[in-house]
Design brief:
Elements (H helix, E strand, L loop, with lengths): L15 H12 L3 H8 L3 H8 L7 H11 L3 H21 L4 H4 L1 H4 L1 H9 L9 H12 L13 H5 L8 H16 L9 H6 L1 H6 L5 H14 L2 E6 L7 E7 L5 E6 L5 H16 L6 E5 L5 H14 L2 H10 L4 H11 L3 H10 L20
Amino acid sequence: MVENTTGYCLDLIIHPGETLKEVLDDRGMSQKELSIRTGFTEKHISTVVKGKKGISNSFAKALEYALGIDTSFWCNLQNEYNQEIIELEQANGILDNELSVLENLKQIINYFKEKNILEDEDNRSVIVLKLRQIFNVSNLTFIPKLSMQGAFRAAETTAIDPYVLCAWQRICEMKSEDMIIDKALNTKLLKSYIPQVKRLMFKDPNSMRNELTEIFAECGISFNIVRHFKGAPVQGFIKRTEDGKMLLCMTLRQSFADIFWFTLFHEIAHILNGDVKSYLCDFDFTKDEVEKKADDFARDVLINPIHMNNFIRKADYSMDAINNFASQEGIPPYIVIGRLQKEKKIDYSTYAGAKVRYKWVQ
């Protein structure tokens, strides 16, 4: 229930569509029959019944003919509802600047509706109230002032939308709330699991994700792969929890498998190196000594540095040579290809067909 200190309550505001549904139920009339009798589509009637659309004057007149209930009754219901929504906006302090935030959060709102986190609601004021609950703020305009302000400072010159970035972080937290992690963070155990994690590179992405989730859970880490949203150019997000565990989320932004694995071991490095004091939001453009150490760890875990140097000295970048080297290292060939492309030993278009892209089941 959405409540506020002035006594207005969203759940007590009845949309005219609810009354229409009650009338249809009482008469045993289907929406299809009402569609035939009024000349309005079933879709139109369904959206009204669900509270997503109001009752227009023309629809109210059609309902008078179809149901024998005066046009004025339906128009008055709609007018009362509209007035109550206005009063609700005033009571909850919903102003235009807060309503404008919904445009920033458009893709997030669609995601929340898709996942049934938000009802399929079109009333913007109602959506604002629901989002306040989700983000735990009394006004959506406060979002840029939340805990990730340090991350925003690190990315002042980039195309980051602070509202989308905060929403992505909140989605990470919500996904982790559904998981039961009964072990404390154990970095020593995590380090011992690295060879097993590397073997998962040969598995299909969705079974690999499930096994990664189990491995991280054993180490006291809640692991999730979260959809990418434009405006949040994030590689990963790590956060310590109050109960001594850790949250690790990666974005679906990079679909190339070699980038995914490099990023994963990069985030593991942050955990092993003790870089996460409270939280760490990892952008792909952030460059400092901490990030360099994490990059070096990921690079050397994926491919033994001495072996890689020897391979490069031979300068044989044929597919046969790559396959043989990958086999010796116990890694898929796409890891070697990605490394050669990154170090500009081969062009990014070379062996493009051998690169693997992950497609995740949400």
